[in-house]
């Protein structure tokens, strides 16, 4: 009898440990990063409950995406807070990963392909999102206001975060696995560490328009690109923030003028789009970007004929 009870205790403890690890893991895909990032969760109870938990996180595909695409409410930026679903707020859960005051991933990147997310304009206010937020990469760059109210250390003041990574182990229909910086930003003054110590908390969120003052839509040519393979990271889109399609127009070799023909690029991963050809691509290149609302933006001849991999080319255009 005693042996059976001890076996039951061990089984319960193992189940709790599995759930806590699964609930708190945010990682980039293996071919994008060799590192996996674990979020911080509350300590495991020393005494297990009489029965093991009976629920596990449902698969990400069972969740629907939050409202999006135009019509964003004005940013609230600390001007007071309503409750529940009023004002477009939805319920979610949040964890955090990486350094307490860091941007999340050790390499300051993530499954969206963005680079230097610890620096402006991201400024470490970043988050992994589960599938309804990440949207298989098409949610990359989306902006959300988040706030917490339930914990004593919560300020209740909304903070804006950007989806830059993927969360494969959600603990709720909507799960933000935040950078340590973003998680702590929801706290009252000087209580950031107290809030981070909570590990997993209930929050509220809503989609808001992205704003990159002084910046235009920018294109980063990925390493490994060559005349037959062009991979482009799209960054700093106002409004929706995300990208659902990129099209490319080449130039004629004889005079360098645009061909007038748009060719669709394929989503490589995250916010990186690629063009594969059997013949060398002919620049300069124009790029047409379409966001989730269906708005398009054309950057004429934004990538020169003598482009180089790992270079950044800024356009002179921006979404309204």
From TrEMBL:
<keyword id="KW-0964">Secreted</keyword>
<keyword id="KW-0732">Signal</keyword>
<dbReference type="Pfam" id="PF03330">
    <property type="entry name" value="DPBB_1"/>
</dbReference>
<feature type="compositionally biased region" description="Low complexity">
    <location>
        <begin position="62"/>
        <end position="84"/>
    </location>
</feature>
<dbReference type="InterPro" id="IPR009009">
    <property type="entry name" value="RlpA-like_DPBB"/>
</dbReference>
<feature type="domain" description="Expansin-like CBD">
    <location>
        <begin position="228"/>
        <end position="315"/>
    </location>
</feature>
<dbReference type="GO" id="GO:0005576">
    <property type="term" value="C:extracellular region"/>
</dbReference>
<dbReference type="InterPro" id="IPR036749">
    <property type="entry name" value="Expansin_CBD_sf"/>
</dbReference>
<dbReference type="InterPro" id="IPR007118">
    <property type="entry name" value="Expan_Lol_pI"/>
</dbReference>
<keyword id="KW-0961">Cell wall biogenesis/degradation</keyword>
<keyword id="KW-0325">Glycoprotein</keyword>
<dbReference type="InterPro" id="IPR007117">
    <property type="entry name" value="Expansin_CBD"/>
</dbReference>
<dbReference type="Pfam" id="PF01357">
    <property type="entry name" value="Expansin_C"/>
</dbReference>
<dbReference type="GO" id="GO:0071555">
    <property type="term" value="P:cell wall organization"/>
</dbReference>
<feature type="domain" description="Expansin-like EG45">
    <location>
        <begin position="109"/>
        <end position="215"/>
    </location>
</feature>
<dbReference type="InterPro" id="IPR007112">
    <property type="entry name" value="Expansin/allergen_DPBB_dom"/>
</dbReference>
<protein>
    <recommendedName>
        <fullName>Expansin-like EG45 domain-containing protein</fullName>
    </recommendedName>
</protein>
<feature type="compositionally biased region" description="Pro residues">
    <location>
        <begin position="45"/>
        <end position="61"/>
    </location>
</feature>
<dbReference type="InterPro" id="IPR036908">
    <property type="entry name" value="RlpA-like_sf"/>
</dbReference>
<comment type="similarity">
    <text>Belongs to the expansin family. Expansin B subfamily.</text>
</comment>
<dbReference type="InterPro" id="IPR005795">
    <property type="entry name" value="LolPI"/>
</dbReference>
<keyword id="KW-0134">Cell wall</keyword>
<feature type="region of interest" description="Disordered">
    <location>
        <begin position="30"/>
        <end position="84"/>
    </location>
</feature>
<feature type="compositionally biased region" description="Basic residues">
    <location>
        <begin position="30"/>
        <end position="40"/>
    </location>
</feature>
<feature type="signal peptide">
    <location>
        <begin position="1"/>
        <end position="26"/>
    </location>
</feature>
């Amino acid at each position: 009898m005693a042996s059976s009870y001890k076996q039951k205790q061990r089984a319960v403890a193992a189940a709790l440990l599995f759930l806590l690890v699964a609930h708190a893991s945010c990682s980039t895909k293996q071919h994008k990063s060799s590192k996996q990032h674990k979020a911080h969760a509350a300590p495991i109870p020393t005494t297990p409950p009489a029965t093991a938990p009976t629920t596990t996180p449902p698969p990400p595909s069972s969740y629907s995406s939050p409202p999006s695409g135009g019509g964003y409410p004005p940013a609230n930026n600390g001007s007071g807070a309503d409750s529940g679903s009023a004002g477009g707020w939805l319920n979610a859960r949040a964890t955090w990963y990486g350094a307490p005051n860091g941007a999340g991933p050790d390499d300051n990147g993530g499954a969206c392909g963005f680079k230097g997310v610890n620096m402006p304009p991201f400024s470490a206010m970043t988050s992994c999102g589960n599938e309804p937020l990440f949207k298989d990469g098409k949610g990359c760059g989306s902006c959300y206001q988040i706030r917490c109210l339930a914990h004593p250390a919560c300020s209740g003041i909304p903070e804006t975060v950007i989806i830059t990574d993927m969360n494969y182990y959600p603990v709720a229909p909507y799960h933000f696995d935040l950078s340590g910086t973003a998680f702590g930003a929801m706290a009252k003054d000087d209580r950031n560490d107290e809030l981070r110590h909570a590990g997993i908390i209930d929050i509220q969120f809503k989609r808001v328009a992205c704003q990159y003052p002084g910046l235009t839509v920018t294109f980063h040519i990925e390493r490994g690109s060559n005349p037959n393979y062009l991979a482009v990271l799209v960054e700093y889109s106002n409004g929706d923030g995300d990208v659902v399609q990129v099209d490319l127009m080449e130039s004629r070799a004889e005079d360098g003028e645009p061909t007038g023909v748009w060719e669709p690029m394929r989503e490589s991963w995250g916010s990186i789009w690629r063009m594969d050809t059997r013949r060398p691509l002919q620049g300069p290149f124009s790029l047409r970007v379409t966001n989730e609302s269906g708005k398009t933006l054309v950057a004429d001849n934004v990538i020169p004929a003598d482009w180089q991999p790992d270079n950044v080319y800024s356009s002179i255009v921006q979404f309204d």
